[in-house]
Design brief:
The structure is a single chain. By secondary structure, the chain is of the alpha/beta class. It has two domains: about 170 residues, FAD/NAD(P)-binding domain (3-Layer(bba) Sandwich), CATH 3.50.50; about 170 residues, Polyamine Oxidase, Chain A, domain 2 (Alpha-Beta Complex), CATH 3.90.660. Strands 1, 2, 7, 8, 9, 10, 11 and 17 form an eight-stranded mixed sheet that branches. Strand 13 and strand 14 form a beta hairpin. Helix 1 packs parallel to helix 3, helix 1 crosses helix 9 and helix 4 packs across helix 5. The longest helix is centred in the C-terminal third of the chain and has 16 residues. It is globular. It starts with a strand and ends with a helix. About 5% of the residues have low confidence.
């Protein structure tokens, strides 16, 4: 049993940034409880593919989100600068490809360039997770502890967590920061007394960003598409990928990635090998025979992540409403606060949303 001032549930970007912010304010009496052994939540890298360190030598490519926009996501930009992380612009030079029908060859058209530009972090977005972790007290990060129950135990909240062996542990905190998607909180955590019905329903109906999606990455020795005057970007009505981009690292390996348009419930009935083969075949169809033999291939199906997605996320509406951060009355008022990206008021569904939600959440109490 441990007593702390603040308990943070989840060690993704929101949870680690919350700890970083607390320490900057001089608050060191906290604990982070993370269900998995690997930190980062929805920020994931090929260096941890299948939960193991990378042994392929291909380096860190983003299996989750890759971009942010400093021009208007200023809090996120400030954090990246504060952590002294190197950034570079997403490659978008050249034409893009459109695949309208299986009966027609890909159509080459003028590429689309984001303005303001999409930016990436050198070494991959997981570099941000590593940088935050290095700047907080690692002894306060407890891995492999899935929080199952929150119980009011005046003057504290009791958090009951469980490890992989089924052993349970208790922490007692004055306040709980929920660095998880609202739907996952409502699905996997029980509250005693229960949350207000209206709030529980609101959290349950909030779609989880990334949860229904899957991403394929192919790594090559050279960005051969650039030699063809292509940006690496493509859109397809044929599939299995519907949106494709250049994923090459700065001064390093060349890569392409794509988001699969195959629904999660359909993907669950297809083997990973079949999906990879279909994605590789699409790259060959679009970019030519040089795409036929990648150095490495990765696929990440977020719908299979039990600490990200629920059954409800198998078919997502894609809507991102603005759920209440915390109960406005009752036993849980001023005791629990949501700080995951879905609780953002400005950037819900983006990395910057986690930063915004944490800042708002900390300010609220």
């Amino acid at each position: 049993m441990q007593n702390v001032r603040i308990a943070v549930v989840g060690a993704g970007l929101a949870g680690l940034y919350a700890a970083y912010s607390l320490e900057k304010k001089g608050i060191k009496d906290y604990v982070i409880l993370e269900a998995r052994e690997i930190l980062g939540g929805r920020i994931a890298s090929t260096i941890h593919s299948d939960g193991k360190p990378d042994v392929s030598g291909v380096g860190g490519f983003d299996l989750g989100p890759s971009w942010f926009w400093p021009a208007f996501q200023t809090d996120m930009a400030r954090l990246v600068d504060e952590l002294e992380l190197e950034t570079f612009q997403q490659f978008e030079t050249g034409d893009m490809l459109l695949e309208r029908s299986s009966n027609q060859p890909p159509e080459r058209t003028r590429g689309y360039v984001n303005s303001p530009p999409s930016m990436r972090i050198a070494g991959g977005m997981y570099t941000l997770i590593d940088a935050l972790y290095r700047r907080i007290d690692s002894a306060r990060v407890v891995r492999g502890r899935a929080v199952r129950h929150l119980r009011m135990s005046e003057p504290h909240v009791e958090l009951v967590s469980e490890n992989a062996r089924g052993e349970t542990f208790s922490h007692f905190a004055e306040h709980v920061l929920l660095a998880m998607p609202p739907r996952l909180v409502e699905s996997q955590l029980t509250f005693s007394p229960a949350l207000p019905d209206v709030l529980a329903r609101q959290w349950r109906e909030t779609d989880t960003w990334m949860a229904p999606h899957a991403k394929y990455i192919a790594v090559f020795d050279q960005p051969f598409w650039r030699d063809q005057g292509l940006s690496g970007e493509a859109r397809s009505a044929v599939g299995p990928m519907v949106e494709i981009h250049d994923a090459s690292t700065q001064g390093g390996k060349a890569a392409l990635f794509g988001f699969l348009g195959v629904p999660a419930d359909v993907r669950s009935r297809v083997s990973e090998e079949e999906l990879i083969t279909a994605c590789r075949t699409q790259f060959v169809r679009l970019f030519g025979s040089q795409a036929e033999n990648p150095e490495a291939e990765f696929i990440k199906d977020w719908a299979k992540e039990i600490y990200i997605a629920t059954d409800t996320d198998q078919r997502s509406s894609g809507d991102h409403p603005m759920p209440a951060l915390s109960p406005s009355s009752g036993a849980w008022a001023n005791r629990v606060t949501g700080i995951g990206s879905e609780w953002s008021r400005e950037f819900t569904g983006y990395l910057a949303g986690a930063i915004d939600a944490v800042n708002r959440g900390l300010y609220s109490f």
